[in-house]
Amino acid sequence: ATGQPAGICPFKMVLLGESAVGKSSLVLRFVEGKFHEYEVSTIGGAYLTQTVSIGDITVKLELWDTAGREKYHSLAPMYYRGAHAAIVVYDITNADTFSRAKVWVKELQHQAASNIIIALAGNKVDLATTTRQVEVADAQTYAEENGLIFMETSAKTSMNVNDIFMAIARKLPKLK
Ligand code: GDP
Which residues cross the membrane (predicted)? Predict the structure, then answer.
């Protein structure tokens, strides 16, 4: 099949998790290849798109960040309504954020689309040697039990950032 234009499939992906775990930073790293040590809220609001190729399919990822409104949990359904995929982010140096991530996962499993693809990102892995609070094995086990894609990431060093977005993107065309 020559001369066949590849279709562009848009997919909605949301990032959920506690404040300051690095949701905006992961999006900024993935889309623009940048990292800011102090604040990322400039993209607050935040809706960014990134187009990636999966074989001969072009997938347009529409990335939604909760823009600091994760405090207002009641607004959450607005973010994940219609989402094809979600990345639930926690900070490996803060055990509370892992507990909260599990609550987000449960909520998605019960309230979001039944075929939503969920990934769990243990972010700030660059700080693992000094201040790790969440063991990788615990998160791995939890992810396996819940059918989640799982990676430890660093928006700072970019470790696994492309990989986690691409692991999700590869599954998206199969949804349609
Ligand atoms: P959000 O509230 O979840 O969107 O978190 P932000 O993206 O605003 O990040 C919160 C803080 O954590 C900022 O100071 C970031 O620079 C920092 N941060 C984000 N990701 C990483 C990371 O992978 N490693 C380190 N060391 N800091 C990070």
Answer: none
